[in-house]
Design brief:
InterPro entries: VWF_A, vWFA_dom_sf
Structural class: alpha/beta
Distance between the termini: 8 Å
CATH superfamily: von Willebrand factor, type A domain
Strand order of the largest sheet: 3-2-1-4-5-6
Number of strands: 6
Protein name: Ca-activated chloride channel family protein
CATH architecture: 3-Layer(aba) Sandwich
Number of domains: 1
Pfam families: VWA, VWA_2
Strand content: 15-25%
Shape: globular
Largest sheet: 6 strands, mixed
Helix content: 40-55%
Radius of gyration: 18 Å
Length: 236
């Protein structure tokens, strides 16, 4: 892969419902993708089953954001979140490699012969653990998440601990939405590798209000833009 300066930039939305406040989240996700940030999402389902509109919105957001979508019950969020994190890193790398291959040989990964494609996919899977990552979690803390929030918090802490086993540097930030006092969002934790700092931010979160998913995506974009990545967070 051609050398380039930068890091993999990702956001993953955790939500149990459809956005109902602020900018359209599909439009916000498209802006993020255009800026080089991949947007993925996990939809929390329950026994009451969410409507088709909720599921369609999650899929529309991730399609516009160039990411992946998945769904799970709250008790399965921990495993789903960890698997999704690995998949989204590999997915982003595959898009980068495919684009570079097309510019060099006129073919992307999907158009290569199976044996060559398998070798490239294997390289991406191995490299995915070593690439550095700026990662924002967007946690829906709307009223409907009240009985799911404690489990979601624990899953995010477990993810942070798991990410420490990666060979690459991972800096994680957390945005909750909605925020307090009528604000659309709350930056619960800026980019960090410290689990205790993340825990402090999570402990302050409470379920309330509506679901401003679009503004949360915009806030995550701004957080990434404002972050001045040091040399230690560069990949080749």
């Amino acid at each position: 892969m051609e050398k380039e300066t930068g890091i993999i930039k990702q956001m993953i939305i955790i939500t149990d419902g459809k956005s109902n406040i602020g900018i359209n989240p599909v439009e916000a996700a498209a802006k993020a993708k255009a800026a080089g940030i991949t947007v993925s999402a996990i939809g929390i389902i329950d026994n009451e089953c969410k409507g088709e509109e909720d599921i369609m919105e999650v899929e529309a957001i991730t399609k516009a954001g160039g990411g992946l979508a998945d769904y799970c019950y709250i008790q399965d969020l921990g495993m789903t979140l960890q698997v999704m994190t690995q998949k989204t890193v590999n997915h982003t790398l595959e898009c980068i490699v495919s684009k570079q291959l097309k510019s060099i040989i006129g073919k992307d990964i999907t158009n290569m012969e199976p044996q060559s494609r398998m070798k490239i996919v294997e390289f991406i899977e191995n490299y995915g653990d070593r690439v550095d990552l700026l990662y924002v979690i967007l946690l829906d803390t709307s009223k409907s998440m009240a009985n799911k929030l404690d489990t979601a918090k624990k899953c995010i802490i477990d993810l942070m601990e798991a990410l420490k086993n990666r060979k690459g540097v991972t800096k994680l930030a957390l945005i909750s939405y909605p925020g307090e006092n009528g604000n659309y969002i709350n930056t619960a934790c800026d980019f960090t590798t410290d689990t205790d700092v993340l825990k402090e931010g999570l402990n302050l979160l409470r379920a309330r209000g509506g679901t401003p998913t679009g503004p949360a995506i915009e806030a995550a974009m701004n957080l990434i833009f404002e972050y001045d990545a040091p040399a230690s967070l560069r990949y080749v």
